[in-house]
Amino acid sequence: MPKDSRDSRYDILFEPLQIGPKLAKNRFYQVPHCNGGGYRDPSAAAEMRRTKAEGGWGVIFTEQTEIHPSSEITPFIEQHLWEDKDIPALAAMAEAMKSHGALAGIQLAYSGINGPNLYSRDVPLAVTGGPILTFTSDPVQARTMDREDIRDLRRWFRNAFRRSQQAGFDLICLYGAHGFGIFQHFLSRATNHRADEYGGSLENRGRFLREVIEDAREVTKGELGITYRMSLHEAGTYGFSNAEVRDFIEMHGDLPDLWDLAQGTWEACSGTSRFKPEGAQEDLVRGIKALTSKPVVGVGRFTSADAMVRQIRSGILDFIGAARPSIADPFLPKKIEEARFDDIRECIGCNICVSGDMTGGISRCTQNTAFMEEWRKGWHPERARPKGPSSSVLVVGAGPTGLEAALQSARRGYQVTLAEATTVLGGRVARERTLPGLSAWGRVADYRTGQLQPLTNAEVYRDSRLTADDVLAMGAEHVAIATGASWRRDAVARLHLLPIPTDPAMPVFSPDDLMAGQGPTGGRVTVYDDDHFYMGSLMAEVLVARGCTVDFVTPATKVAEWAENTLEQAIIMRRLLELGVQVHLSKAPETIGPSEVNLGCTWSGAITTLPADAVVMVTSRIPHDGLYHDLAARQGEWEAAGLRSVKLIGDAAAPGPIAWATYAGRRYAEELDMPDDRGDTPRFRREVARLEPGPSRLP
Ligand code: ADP
Ligand code: SF4
Asked: 468 CA to middle of ligand 1, Å?
């Protein structure tokens, strides 16, 4: 579509802007973000960035790139730039980023007090020594750097600047945000207790950053833009507070070529939509632009073009920073430019992408099923591969799995029928979007429903609960059974592998019951959570809102422990305490009586009794696979019915998070008409470590 299709209200977003010696083609700035692939999956990471270049971003950054083995954050998988042989992987990344005219940026990191060095085994070096501050309480301390160490560190940064330039990057970002980078450790009195010229006054604490930026300009001969990513606010008496941040920028307004502002901790900066609205860091950013002549970028999970324009017009930001919105829709700038607003696949703020980094897996995105599969599988967020020889597909069930399977199959060119038992499209998303704080999750259904609507080769039938007879009568060549799952009520999950004895007089409910408006409306209720993600705490919230007194019981040592991976665990615990919920850790119901729950301690086995009027089980889910098995039992009738394949997908096969469901839908559509080797070869490309030439043992 030509550029003149653009709505002139958004012109400002497409104005070019200088970052030091480099000109960004527009204001869309993909801030550094991890992807769980890093140095292990360099081609997958590079191709993911290329997709963003294609989607119109003006600036694209790598994830954190560690400059030296004396500071690395294993088990998290980021990039390495430790020696010249790391350059080619990053050069491929830079080339991909620049492929459509974006500026390519590299984020350089030295983690200091945050790097346990579990891989390199070097002694960690910090501004001020002490126990390593990370998510995992590693039993390791860092040594305080002396002046010689600081000189070494400057030299290591100089090496990284030379290598970054050699790799072809336009911009270098120095990482000093989220409590993670050495520059912040120098600036903050919480982590800098030095008595030399690098400690004490703000002037002194800023010395290292000034020196390194001078070094960067000298090494790169002023040819690269140098940006500084800084925390907007560090909490605590000695933290680098928002007031000090402002003092520092006032003192050093022209130091970097751009100020990249990120809210305090990573948890605060990348808050989920359940707890943080769009534009949540505005109060901390407002007014900073006036303190510097250099451009300012900030984030806020921006997906609305109007909100972006407001940030710029009201003088808060110069560039619109985005990590998650760029993951959910790499083509966000292009869609705004072409006024295709309904096509924007908005981030739902679930942080499943973050969990890929936190778990050492590879990141995935609930909304953009192609994320990190661009190279591994050849998937694209916008383009579909042409269809194979067969022509028709029936998808049963319009939850996230079925909606994605139908949309992607239709985009490939198959004739698609989507049948849904109820009158509402969205399945579990239609229910979960009604829970406190989860309304943005509805975008999973809204985007797909909206995209299916204009397609002439896709028909959607509501109120159509299909039986095996119906499916056989419909004549589709391929059938996807995406009929979902229901929460159990018998306590079976991880701790209890078999149902526990339960007195029939005790009312027992599941999250499905509560989401359907049933369940207790008062009294004392036990919520038993052996799921460990978001649902348990949401059930407690719903019950408190209904006037119940809630006991939250979990066999884990903390509530919602998997929510560590979405950066929500601490905030969930705080929320439960604020709501007056009684938390019972390391406990699980052993038996349920008519008016009590008998809890066993997971350590000692000691039994305590909790009075209860009702129980809500947040445990595991039972797949709805009956239709699939009915059809499988009638395979002899398939040929006459024109049926060639029946597949069970999504929650109906194996319940999981919504991102697993959308992924299953995409995979189904991608693999239509593909030869099925029953898993004898991997279904994705991967990189295998190259063996190093040389002797097997060093002398
Ligand atoms: P998933 O997460 O795998 O998409 P959901 O539970 O969200 O699973 O969605 C499953 C959908 O399938 C629900 O909307 C449900 O109403 C629908 N469904 C279940 N059985 C049938 C059936 N026999 N015919 C049509 N739709 C069905
Ligand atoms: Fe947004 Fe969730 Fe996708 Fe992350 S995984 S980009 S939070 S939709």
From this structure: 15
